[in-house]
Amino acid sequence: MTSKTTLDAARVELLLNELRLPGIKLMWAKLAEQSDKEGWPAARFLAAIAEHEMVDRGRRRMERHLTEARLPAGKTLATFDFESVPMVSKAQVMALAAGDEWLAKGANILLFGPPGGGKSHLSAALGLALIENGRRVFFARTTDLVQRLQIARREFGLESAIAKLDRYDMLILDDLAYVTKDQAETSVLFELIAARYERRSMLITANQPFGEWGQIFPDQAMTLAAVDRLVHHATIFEMNVPSYRRKAALDRKRGPGRPATHATSKKAEKPDAD
Fold this sequence. Notes:
This protein is of the alpha/beta class. The protein folds into two domains: 67 residues, no CATH class; 156 residues, Rossmann fold, CATH 3.40.50. It contains twelve helices and five strands. The chain has a five-stranded parallel sheet with strand order 2-3-4-1-5. α9 links the parallel β3 and β4. The longest helix has 28 residues. The relative contact order is 0.13.
């Protein structure tokens, strides 16, 4: 390599740093060598390095979105046991995972059912699928997020805190039922629901059906207003199935030499986080 070529290569490295093109910086020398050897036209070389940068940016973007989403690990649609939750249509879930029209109009997904039935698994798996399709998602236990919003309110920053959540195409609130019936907590939760109405989507999991939401919100008017906003554009899944965790605990208690009192499928016996 001549001194001029070495100088040019160093200059390219500096320029790529300045332009913040790490993908091209990583591969340009190898592609340039291949281009010189095979006699590529300039347009082919430029297309090759631009394509590599685009792929690398997509990979880094997904990594950032996965990190910020805070999804529970290992929860995917591939590992969700649809056979054990027959009331949930796999085809419908896969259509939701594409996340096009329903996210554009700020529609919601509501998952109801007893603990251990797979609500959290399905919500996290949908969140992961949406991230893989280029969307931004945030997963939080409802109590944790509500406490953060309460702190923001005390510091006169509630509006700003809710606005920051607008960056996420879907906000997953897990375990709505565990919010205490406290005026301060439920009022910030209601403000969040109202602020996202018909603009940004929410996915909510809850143990109680709507008829028992009076235990969450302090008065009937707020309960009705919250439910009205959530269901206006919503897909609702009733996941009323036995707890996978309970089944697994019973199986362990019985031990390998004691037969089950009733038949269960292999898939139904696998524990699944709610």
